[in-house]
Amino acid sequence: KKIYPTLWWLFRDNLLPSDTKFIGYARSKLSVAELKEKCRQYMKVQEDQVEKFEEFWSVNFYVAGSYDSRRDFELLNQEISKFEVGRAANRLFYLALPPSVFESVTVHIRNTCMGEKGWNRIIVEKPFGRDAQSSNVLSVHLAKLFTEDQLYRIDHYLGKEMVQNLMTIRFGNQIFSPTWNRAHVASVLITFKEPFGTQGRGGYFDDFGIIRDVMQNHLLQILSLVAMEKPATCHPDDIRNEKVKVLKSIRELAIEDVVLGQYVGDPNGADEDSRMGYLDDPTVPKGSVTPTYALAVLKINNERWDGVPFILRCGKALNERKAEVRIQYHDVPGDIFDGKPKRNELVIRVQPGEALYVKMMTKSPGITFDMEETELDLTYGHRYKDVALPDAYERLILDVFCGSQMHFVRSDELSEAWRIFTPLLHYIERERPEPIKYVYGSRGPKDADRKCDENNFKYYGSYKWHQKH
């Protein structure tokens, strides 16, 4: 669904070195023709691209082998070596694997498949462990085999246009920079919402839960970009150093800091999925208390953010699909308008429809002296109509080819992220607190709104977003 389409788009747009070859390796006995059929529906091939599409598959190869046999990896190495005829040849390994086979595969790659004519780089897909300890074991294991500059821990959220734009918005605009602190900001809300349930993948999801799936990685990554200090340069390590400093200033989460929810079916739902609750999914264990919704309040103990709540909120089976950052400013001091002004907000919408807008108060047009909320609006679909935004994976895989680690997760960053969340995750597993039920298609548990309110985030529900046509 993700990797092959991404490779095809990069190939189609001539963004990869011209003599790149693609070799798949897995246990399944597959031919390239079968692989092509499996991928076809995700590839978005236009009529005028059919020839190029065939050309892409002509440089694709496939080797079937087990994950724990050195001999099979030696055969893979022989297959790769056939194509390395020039003086230089680079190898990029993309590991999209279940955690159970990870260790043996990486050992075999290190011992039998490293190229000798150029660089070797390894892309690692999440999950990067289940808690601080397992993540640390994995990091130590990888550190014995590869250097940190060979490792690319991919979090596709870091490839999204508006996430990458955070740096520019913050450090390239004098209008925002001076107000980006506790004196002006009341609270920050980072949201990820999905309008569908587990869709039959409940068994897989139940193993991880929404906190591991979305909050501990995607949302925390966004938080660190929103909150970090200005790096010395745009060099990847300078940026990542600042992100680590922010994470080090956050204390570990406790159960009092979170609201956990689990969706139940909506009896009046329009389709089968919406009428099914999480526990109705046959792949989910009976009586599971795995949260499908979580809201957590984090505090950053440093000079810039002392006392400003950072609220992370994510959930499945909610009322809309959305990922965004809301920076809410304090109420206007010395209010002369009898409490009518609503708070200003800077909203950075990651998906769907990338946008950046500032909510502000203006006098409503006409003879009366009333006020209303409106926005200064940069919606990418209007401002950049004819610009095709690349998929997050395209951007990130291209970064690996170029050797840029700016949008990848460093090992110390990972261990800090797990330090913050591990005590909470262990508490949930040990004590099995009952998640609050919320109906499929709703805004989530009411307690979550209360928690936002307690943490200085005001939700008015009066603002209307005007869709332009």
Automatic annotation (TrEMBL):
Q: Which organism is it from?
A: Anopheles melas
Catalytic activity field? D-glucose 6-phosphate + NADP(+) = 6-phospho-D-glucono-1,5-lactone + NADPH + H(+)
Q: Where in the cell is it found?
A: Cytoplasm, Cytosol
- The top EC class is oxidoreductase
Is-annotated flag, keyword NAD? no
**Cited Gene3D superfamilies:** Dihydrodipicolinate Reductase, domain 2, NAD(P)-binding Rossmann-like Domain
Give the record's pathway: Carbohydrate degradation; pentose phosphate pathway; D-ribulose 5-phosphate from D-glucose 6-phosphate (oxidative stage): step 1/3
Signal sequence segment: none
Q: Which PROSITE patterns match?
A: G6P_DEHYDROGENASE
A Gene Ontology CC term for this entry? cytosol
- Domain Glucose-6-phosphate dehydrogenase C-terminal spans what residues? 167-459
**Assigned keywords, A-Z:** Carbohydrate metabolism, Cytoplasm, Glucose metabolism, NADP, Oxidoreductase
A Gene Ontology annotation in the biological process aspect, one of them, is: glucose metabolic process
Provide the family line.
Answer: Belongs to the glucose-6-phosphate dehydrogenase family.
What the entry lists under NCBIfam families is as follows: zwf (TIGR00871)
- Function text: Catalyzes the rate-limiting step of the oxidative pentose-phosphate pathway, which represents a route for the dissimilation of carbohydrates besides glycolysis. Cytosolic glucose-6-phosphate dehydrogenase that catalyzes the first and rate-limiting step of the oxidative branch within the pentose phosphate pathway/shunt, an alternative route to glycolysis for the dissimilation of carbohydrates and a major source of reducing power and metabolic intermediates for fatty acid and nucleic acid biosynthetic processes.
What Pfam families does its record include?
G6PD_C, G6PD_N
Q: What is this protein called?
A: Glucose-6-phosphate 1-dehydrogenase
